[in-house]
Amino acid sequence: MQLQSAFQSVVSNDMIFNGFKFSPKVLHFNCIYDGGVSNQSVPIVLAISTEDKEKLDGCLAITLLHNNKPVAILRAPEFFEHRKEERCARQFGTTHPSHPYIQMIFASGDWLVGGELEVLNRIRWNDGLDEYRFTPTELKKTFHDMGADAVFAFQLRNPVHNGHALLMQFTRQTLLERGYKKPVLLLHPLGGWTKDDDVPLAVRMEQHKAILEERVLDPEHTILAIFPSPMLYAGPTEVQWHARSRLMAGAKFYIVGRDPAGMAHPNPALKQDLYEPTHGGKVLSMAPGLVGMEIIPFRVAAYDTRAKCMSFFDPERKQDFEFISGTRMRGLARAGESPPPGFMAEKAWDVLALYYRALNSD
């Protein structure tokens, strides 16, 4: 029997197909790996409707299709009740109906299907960005060919400003001072689904390339690649998945940001973050499954009005620092104005400004 995968299922399972979940031949939901149960902070599941379950019940194998093309075979399938409320409560710590990913979970099928997954073909999105989609094995080979003796990863779903770059530059310098000869940065923007108000992947990639072209980040010591996961906005639970995936790709150092995988509370009346901003970093420091990875804590950067650049925040002279919010940044771009000098590389800002002005014209 055949099963046409929905877009969101394909985006999620692209993590498996590209090797970020174990190997090209793995067990899916209800997974056993190396003879034991593998605990994952974020479940990757395939939800199906009751109608599809009834059609597939008793099948020995299911061919998974994307755009009517076979991408994988699921053998010895098993079906499980999709306990949506329990899944959301455990994964997100909330079941709020306005959370964007929770909305998709509750709109998905009432059953989950799992089994032994055999990948047939690598998914090509044909969006002009496939050259930036690497498997963990390919990334490891690239790092080896570069002569990297340390790899540090930076996860992001937003455009890079000079505060982000400062943290990455500082991390590389710290590794050099610790005796590493060639630390390499894995600049690994999230490439799956994101909220409608997030900057699209294609725009972010152009912005990141501009950062490298202007040498805000050294292109000779940086690999720009797409991390194929969707954004779940699951906070401290999700950030464990982000770090673990980079460990599988060869990174031994992971820069954790403020409020990683977070978002504003879905109840706007509360006017607060959904997750406590420091909990993601704290959870990573004690999370199981990250043996061999060192977590680099986030340092707050802000615009230094005295130095006219982004600097690490100094509470002793807090009057000299200005925090430029994403809301203000978007407002400047839409109005055709520029941020203060030193906030973002000029070419990188031009990419964002063009995108936001196009939104205004629409």
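[next item in queue]
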Amino acid sequence: MSDKLQKKRGIVVTFLVSAAVVLLAVLYFMPIWWVSLTAPNYPPEAFPDGVRINFHMNGVFNGCRKVDKAEIDEDVALDCVHEMDTINHFVGMYPIASGGVVEKAFSPFLISMLGVMMIGFMITHRGVRLTVMVIGFGGVAAWMYLTYYTPEGLKWQTPGYLSSMVISLDQTSEEAKKEELNPIIAQLKESLRESGVRTETSAPDVEVAAEEGSSEENYQILKSAFENDQTRKPADEREEWTGSGEQVLFWHYHRALGRWFNNPQEINPMVANMHMAGTILFWVVIVGMVAMLVAAWKTTWPLYWLLVIIPILLPVFFIAEYSAWLWWYGHSLNEMGAFTLKPFMPTVFGQGKVAQFTTHSYPNIGFGLMVASSVLLILAALIRRKSLRDAQGNAA
């Protein structure tokens, strides 16, 4: 095979993988999946998308749009994350913030790790490949350690992650030290009592503050909420604020679990298990990066293909993870719920029915970008495989 053809193939592989890396970076900031609930008491005039939420890699965000109609006075969109939590808790379901807590916290490091693997696959020269991967993985490991274990490490987290945590606190920035906000459903009832016209109140200030505020502002909101929680504990059980990702993650998780069903005997073991899962995942990422360096040593052995196969499978990993957490929500119903439901599997894809609610669950733009990235990587892998086989044939 001519060197000219090999060079052309190399250029094509570089282009395909580079495009896949760009898509990977972009999709991190995009909604991956969306879910909505529709019911007769949520008319489409006021809820055109139903009670809708968007799943991102680093959190769950409001998917409801502001309604501009003469008969509806609405300054900002309803906070449908809280609305869905309010609906779900009646059947004993834990808040949305209690799912995927470790995965959301580690998502920037996992995505960055995949990006380094993809770049490593793109580079054919072993010395350059290993050098780039060592630098890349070293940066990811340092970032992960600083974020998770060091004081004020939370400041190294992504803005979207901090925003999501603040929104799920159910507090405003001004009231973080004072009190919980009333659920938005109470505001709706109040407005209906006061007027015969359907007038929607604005979403809680916390959502606006979290989405429009800086990372530093959201950090301070979380700190204030943490310190406020400590004042409610006996003096010997209080914890000093460090601001590490680990501390805030599991305080926030404990708070989310106890938002509706505050049963310490049930919650504490769940937090302990998740704490252990966080530690395990931290070291799995470290060991995984070392393993990928070993895999990248030679292009002639099967381990090399892990550099591209694992990123290709990202959509599969997401669906598996998403499905597993849906199963957990449907099979971990708290007995303190107002209504009793048998354990069930929420709809992963398509339309389903739970009581009077119709559920809708579909991929969003981020998942499309994820699939597109995988397709580009598959094409790049096939071309690289052809090039390596031809090169080995010529060498023989």
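[queue empty]
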